[in-house]
Amino acid sequence: MQTINIFNQDLVVRDELCSSSPLHTIKGLPSLRLYIKPTDNCNANCLFCANEQSKDFGTIDLKKLEYVITYLKQHNVLHGVSITGGEPMTNPDIIFKILDMVYRIDPNMEVQVSTNGHNLLRFLDYKDVNKLESIHISRHHYDDEINRSIFHSSTIATTEDIMRLQQELDDKRIININTIVMKDYIDSLREIRRMLDYASRVGVYKVGFVSLMQCNQFAKDHFINFNDIFSHLDEDFIVGHHFYNGDYCECIDGLYLSEYNKLIEFYARMVKNNTCPCTNQLVYTSDNRLTKGFTKQLLYK
Question: Shortest CA distance to 77 belongs to which of 12, 131, 26?
């Protein structure tokens, strides 16, 4: 770990890359991803929502956000931006203004947007949509009706919405599907295969499987250790890497040959310890504070 100074505060950050062994580390340059939460409003009501503990319900100040991003770029600690929430696409026009601002500061910035698919087709209104590194669509089941029941919402993306956006994008690799691994839903190798076959059918090239953050009783009751599934893959899976970030988290990636005879990328990730000894990311909140991760520890206001 290494201590850096930003906004006149000392910040302990990682100077190690994820390693293929939990016992060995690889030195690297300290860098941070900035998560921007334009809003904490959401059209869904997921029982496992980790954002319930960190809602701020402010009104984002774009000039202040621009100052923060510029400052972080000038100090060479920013390697990417993720726009999250709440549900960011409850106000697409604000999202597009944020994206314009980020690309004005750095035309080559890696930018992700995470969404449950609310107003998904509004991305087609954004002139630089193909510059995005990725649009991460949270989708926790291959069946539209079951997926709606998980989100407790009828305004999330449907299969038809995802296919329409995918067809219109020039860069077909922008859309990623993110799926929570949890009991009673996507909870076995058979269900993983069905989810990957679904993604292959709709034309998506990459699916991420994430174990639940054990933030409440529902999440604890439905938690599945991703190794219980992904350490027993069959011949249709080609495992690429198995990475460890100390005792904090681990992940694997690889390729899957779908029933449509197409290769699709997959990755799986599990956070093992909700308390990390260093800062892995910064968060700009909807009430215009910069915090050390999602812990609400103030860095700049």
Answer: 12
Instruction: Report which secondary-structure segment, H or E, holds 65.
Output: helix 62-74
Task: Report the CATH architecture of 2-17+29-300.
Answer: Alpha-Beta Barrel (3.20)
Tokens of 58: 């402010």
121, amino acid identity: L
Each domain of the chain, given as residue ranges in start order, spans: 2-17+29-300
CA distance 145 to 175: 21
Q: Residue 297 is encoded by which pair of tokens? A: 């520890």
Q: Is the pLDDT of residue 62 over 70?
A: yes
* Radius of gyration in angstroms for the set of CA atoms belonging to the chain, rounded to a whole number: 19
Closest by CA to 37, choosing from 8, 65, 5, 9, is: 65
How much is the pTM?
0.92
Q: Which of 11-15, 60-64, 139-143, 255-259 has the lowest mean pLDDT?
A: 11-15
Q: How far apart are CA 225 and CA 269, in angstroms?
A: 10
What is the 3-state secondary structure of 99-129? Answer: HHHHHHHCCCCCEEEEECCCCHHHHHHCCCH
Which DSSP letter does residue 21 get? S
Give the residue carrying structure tokens 């991760």. Answer: 293
Contact 162, 175 (CB under 8 A): yes
13 neighbors 2 (Cβ within 8 angstroms): yes
